[in-house]
């Protein structure tokens, strides 16, 4: 899998994605992101029987789980779209009048599943957390590199206050794809707190996604 090969060659353990979600801060290295992307890509192939050129819809809030779903799609050459207009949907709630394959994700910052966090899984839905974990963290197909999916960007450490759609995620991840790293701050945060995070994380620039 070529998705993050350039980052793995540079430094597999350095933080590439840092998430601030309320009181929770999580770091993801290139190695961790690569493992998650491989698990998702294998799940797309084996659980959902998707092939290169197929598509999924994603109706998820800004989160690291949304990132790894998108990364897995890029690796598996499955396009990802906003909304609910595909036969496979990754979402956090069961939509009305949807009769395709539904994969539900919880808001748990540590990636636990719907039922693992005390929720009730919709009939016929796939619980993402416990399902994706059983898949291998090596994906055998080469696929594209991540920078083929994101806009051109400088290899900087940037801060972004989340995103609203897939295009925003692509823009937010572009510095990481170029060899830099991204700090994502989720939710309404004061300017003072943003300044504190930027200093603590040694951010070079802030961007909007």
TrEMBL record:
Gene3D superfamilies: 3.40.50.980. NCBIfam families: TIGR03089 family protein. This is TIGR03089 family protein. It comes from Corynebacterium pelargi.
